[in-house]
Structure formats: C-alpha cells, structure tokens
Amino acid sequence: LLADISRSFEPTATLWRMAGQLSRNLPEWMDGPFPEIDAEAVSADVDKWWRGSAKLLKQLSGEPLQVAETVRQQLQDFQQHIPLIAALRNPGLRDRHWDKISAAVGVPVKADAGFSLSRALQINLPAHLATIEEVSEYASKEFSLEKTLDKMQADWAGVHFDSMPWRSSGSSILRGVDDIQQLLDDQVVKTQAMRASPYIGPFEEGVKAWESKLNQTQDIMDEWLKCQQGWLYLEPIFGSEDIQQQMPNEGRKFKAVDANWRRLMERLAKQSEVLIVTADEELLKTLKESNKLLEQVQKGLADYLETKRLAFPRFYFLSNDELLEILSETKDPSRVQPYLRKIFEGINGLQFGADLEVSAMISEEGEKVPFVKPFNPAAANGAVEKWLIECEAAMRDTVKVTTKQSFDAYSNTPRDQWMGSWPGQVVLAVNCIYWTAGAAAAIVRGTLGEYASQLTQQLLQVVNRVRGELSKLERKTLSALIVIDVHARDVTAELARQGVASETDFEYVSQLRYGWEGGDVMVRMINAAIKYGYEYLGNSSRLVITPLTDRCYRTLMGALHLNLGGAPEGPAGTGKTETTKDLAKAIAM
Questions:
Q1: From 43's CA, which of 11, 192, 338, 550 has a CA 20 to 30 Å away?
Q2: pTM of the model
Q3: 313-330 burial code (b ≥16 CB/10 A, e <16)
Q4: How far apart are CA 245 and CA 348, in angstroms?
Q5: Which pairing describes strands 520-525 and 368-375: parallel, antiparallel, or unpaired?
Q6: Phi-psi region for residue 119, left (φ > 0), alpha (ψ -120 to 50) or beta?
Q7: pLDDT in tens, 332-362
C-alpha cells in the first residue's frame, strides 16, 4: 500500500522539486550579477526541466497539472534568452568585442558585476542577437588562438638541453635532442597555421615574434648539431701533433673552433634551458663562423689527403679515416700494419727490427719472404707515403730476384726438393716458364706425346708428395701447383692430339706462355705480351682453368696489352670476378 502511495505521489514530488529550483534560480539568472552566470549550467538545467515537465504533463491531473503548465510556460519564456546568455558569457570576449557590441546596439554594454539579464532585456539586446552572436563567435575563434599560443609557450617550460662528457676531450656534446626537435617541428607547423588564420588580427605581432623565436631556435640547433658533427670528426685528427705539424693552417682554424666549442659547452653546463640559450643571437653568429671554419678545415684536409694519394696511389684503397689513422702516427711505422692487407694484395705484415728496419714481408698464410734490400722507414722523416713506396719497390725487387734465383736452381735441384724451397708464387711462375720452354722444344722436335707423359710423371710426383707429411704452407703451394700442372698436362696432350708442329700454330700461341726476356719474365698469349708484375701475392690458391677461363684470359690479355679495360659478361655466379682475379694472380699485377 505504502509503495502504491509513494508511486502515485512521485510525479507531484518531482514537480514541486522542479518548481522550487526554478523559483530559486530564475531571480538569480534574471537579476543577479551577470559574470556569475554559468551559461552551460543554465542551458543544461533548463533543458533537463523542459524534458521533465513534458513527462509530468502526461502523468498529472487537476491542480498539479496547472502548476506543471505554469512551470513549463516559465521555462518556455526563459529558453529564448539562453542564446543571448551563451553569447554574452563567452570567456573569449575582450574589451574590443564589447566596444563592437556597444557600437551595434547604440548603448554601452559590458557584462560586469553591475550588468544583469534584466538589464540586457531592458536595453533590448535580444533584438541585436545576430550581431552579438557573430561578435561572440569571432571572440571564440580568437580565444582559441590565444589559448593555443599560451599553451605553446607553456610547453617550453622546463625543456633543457642535455649534454654528456665526450671521451677524454675534456669537453662535452649535446645528446637526446630528438624530443626538442619534435616539439620544435610541431610548433613551427602550428605557428604557420595560426599566421594563416583570419582571426589572427589581435595577436599577429605576438605570433610573429613567437615564430621568429622558434625559427631562431631551429637555426641555432641546426648549426649547433652541424658544428658538433664536424668537431667530433676533426677533434681526434687534430689531437695528433703529427697532423698539426703537417697542416698548420688548418690546425690553427680548428683550434679557434675548438675554443668556441668548449666555451659554448661550459656556458651550457650553467644554463641549459632551451629558450634562454637560443635567445642569444651572438650564439648563432658564433656557430655559423665556426661551421665556416670547419668547412675550410675539412676542404684543406681532403686536399691534403688527395696529395698523399697522388704521391702513393695505393692510398685510394683506404678510407679517409684509415688514411688519417696512418698519417697521424708517423713516428710509429708499425701502426700501418693493420692496413697493409688493403694496400698490398699479399702482404699481411712486415717484420720490423729493433731499429725499426723492415727486413721481410709476411703473407696472410704466414709465408715469410726476406727483402733483398731491407729499408728503414725512419729515413722518410715521417712521410709514410715515401717509405711505403720504398716497401713497394722492395717487394717487387724481392719477388723478381727470388724468381731468378729459383729459375736458376730448378735445373740443378731435384724437382720435389725444389718445390718446397721457394715461396709459392715463385714456384708457380718458374714452373710455368719451364713448361713453356719444354712445350716449345717438344713442338720443334715433334715429341709432344712424350712431353705429355713426362708432365704426367711430374704430376704424380707432386700428388705423392701431397699424400705425405707436409707443412701447411707446403701443402698450399703444392695444391696450387697441381691445378697448374694438370692444366699444363691437358694442354700438352691436346696439342699432341691436334698434331701441332709449329710454335706459331694458334692452338699453341693461344695458351698463357711465360719466358725470361731481357732480364724480365714476360707473359704472352696470342699476340699480347705483358711484363710479369712481381706483385707479392702470398701463398694463395689458384682457379681450375677451363676452356671458358682461357677465352676470358685471351680477351683480357688483349685488352691489357692495349692498355684498355675488360669486362666479362654473363649470368651471376659463373666466375667472372674470380676469373679476372685469377688472371691478375697469373701475371702478378
């Protein structure tokens, strides 16, 4: 029963609550101080009561229904003022906007403590609602821009440059600038969009000043990071006294940049807030001057390296950093050792004596070949390229003299003993010289078949040696020798089969032929003749020679003879590069 009574009384209770709230609020809204009205809250309450009253009209009857209709009428009367309240209570309205409204209405209007909704109705503001709403909307747009600008400026509060000590330089460098750069990029885009807005008028000067500040910050950061990159690259280079002595002008310029950099980083340690640091226009000027000097230093450095490369062209095989590493340690020739492999095909190291005299070259496989004429890098007075030129000459002389000695020893030493007594490269070259001489003699005598049998016997001797106990180096030498000997035997047998009877027959002249001519090893193929290069190759392996390999050799030898280049063409993985490299080994280029 009680629940039924409660249910039937509920609409009436809701009505009286609504009527009470309305009767309390309406006088405040109509006559209270206008700045205290919350336009959004008023709109929400009126809307809520309007919907509630519509529901009550269906549920009530009698006198309560009359009250509900009265409440609804009051709400309806007040609803028409809500657009005016919303327009006049816009938080973006400033004095300039009130002046516009006053001019449109013809009466001074300002929503201060002495102003109320009743006063607005009294001076007939609803008649000018369209104008007021237009001014209010304009104010909203301007207020939005104002808030955006304030927020952008607030975003920089507490943003600092971060730095860290750099190795043993005694100075520091910037780090972690990505977040700063991201914020800067975002704000530059936002500021440009604001500049294009039709509502920018009142803040145009402020936005221009802010954009100018952001652009200056961007310029300083760009120049700073560019300077940092140059300083990091050049600092270890000009930290070497040798480089400073060889490049005094560039050394002086770098010292000026270095002093600027250290001063700048010391100041940054005391004050690192981004907008304060980048507000200094002198900083931008200093960084630009430093970068100009760094460009001059780097150009001077590149020119200096180019002169070194022109003096010793093999330096082109090294990167700038590797070359600088060598040039910055001229007092210690052994510092060149790690880079020898890039400069010389077969030299992996040099043997230095107590007085730094170089007495031998050592290959990657561990083969040591004593120099015929040892040399001392100290005589070059720190000019690395000079003693490396000496090294190159010593290498070529040594390979040439050793080849001659081995050639002379071949005829009076048992072959299996001779094979293990000389460097691998020399064994292969002398073996080819003797094959050429033997084949030519056999052609003249018409005994190619017997010569082929003799070569087979020699080959079997080598194979038997390989089956026995050998050092690692000897095994490498004999492996390469077997490859060459098999080819020589096959070629001789083929010449015999074809009945070659003259040294000028194409089948013979199209082979790679070696011989001593005028104190040098000459390599011939068809009508091409090239002097053996005497480049030390170490104890490297050789490629199995096929008819296709021979065809490539003929083309490339012809090109080299005419001082031209050659480029084998064909599918990937068929051995173009390896064939070219193997020909280079065959003629020790």
A1: 11
A2: 0.70
A3: eebeebeeeebbbbbbbb
A4: 30
A5: unpaired
A6: alpha
A7: 888 899 999 999 999 999 999 988 899 999 9
